[in-house]
Amino acid sequence: MPVIGYVSRTEHFSAAHRLNSPRFGKCNHANGHGHNYVVETVLRGPIDPITGMIVNITDLKQWLKTAVLDHVDHKNLDMDVKFFKTRPSTTENLAVFIWMRLAMAMPDRSLLHKVVVAETPKNKSEFCGEGLTQQDFDQCVV
To answer: What Pfam families does its record include (predicted)?
Structure first.
């Protein structure tokens, strides 16, 4: 039986959004507002006995950059990311979006264990992939 381990990568990006409903209070400001998001991705899998790695961190860094960060950093999520045209740009939905984009970029998406998105030091959301269908992946466009 292989030895199973976890490895994580943390990235940061800045983006604006608006939660367009009176029930969201100050998050419903007409001109939107911004956050400096912190994203942690956690992979889980067998540790290769030759390399000593679950995955090469350099690869994970590149997948995150091209699949996620290039599309959200210094953007208005609601206006610049097609995925958020049909759903609110909450931290929960952002975690789902990041999960799907990263999973589609990885050669073995079964290694993706968890995505954690912190909107502020006090508010964060986690997503572990539960409930996704192929239709969800098909609709995960930027």
So the answer is: PTPS
